[in-house]
Design a protein that fits this description.
209 residues
């Protein structure tokens, strides 16, 4: 019974560690912030509406630039599609990857109005980035690799915790089984009937004649 109890407790402990690690990753966020400005004269664009859609969960995050054109949003790690709209400016949008560290991205808006129609949807020549200027969301591959390495290290730690727990449980069970075996051997020995020695017959001398 004790051995089974130890195994159950070890399994529950490993499960709790895995769940806690998953919740920690799910709840961990980082801040993305930046400056939205007029592409022609670099003046700030106040009141710009920013919609950030998670491509992993389809959840939306919203922000507006302040009077100086700055914005700030807390996001979990993952892939996102961001759309920026402001009066008298072309709509601006792109995809980006958010890592576990804070990031700063400035967004230029074209003041001609309407929709920014030279967005390149063909992933074969730039993964859908804008033509004519560099993607403002930096090197996504580096952030992705950093996040994946962090998750991998955490999973390895969880694996070793579970391995140590199971090893300790097996050692305890083995020790307990050894004690039970000794007790059974002792009990078996005590219940064996005692073997009495063979009777000794003495040869009697014949009476003298």
């Amino acid at each position: 019974m004790n051995g089974k109890r130890i195994i159950v407790v070890s399994a529950v402990f490993c499960l709790m560690v895995a769940v806690c690690a998953s919740l920690a990753f799910a709840q961990q966020t980082a801040t993305v912030s930046g400056h939205v400005f007029n592409e022609d004269n670099e003046q700030p664009v106040p009141g710009a509406n920013i919609v950030i859609e998670s491509l992993d969960s389809s959840q939306n995050y919203y922000a507006n630039t302040d009077g100086s054109g700055y914005y700030s949003v807390n996001l979990p790690a993952g892939e996102y599609h961001v759309t920026v709209n402001a009066n008298n400016y072309q709509q601006w949008e792109t995809n980006f990857y958010m890592g576990l560290s804070p990031q700063n991205y400035d967004i230029p808006l074209n003041p001609t109005g309407g929709y920014y129609d030279n967005y390149d949807d063909d992933p074969s020549d730039g993964s859908g980035d804008f033509e004519g200027f560099e993607m403002p969301f930096g090197d996504m591959d580096e952030e992705f690799i950093t996040t994946m390495l962090t998750i991998l290290v955490s999973l390895i730690v969880i694996f070793f915790i579970c391995l140590v727990t199971i090893t300790v449980a097996l050692i305890i069970i083995s020790s307990r089984l050894g004690k039970i075996r000794k007790e059974l051997i002792a009990l078996n020995e005590s219940q064996k009937p005692k073997v009495q020695g063979s009777p000794v017959y003495q040869q009697q001398q014949p009476p003298p004649q």
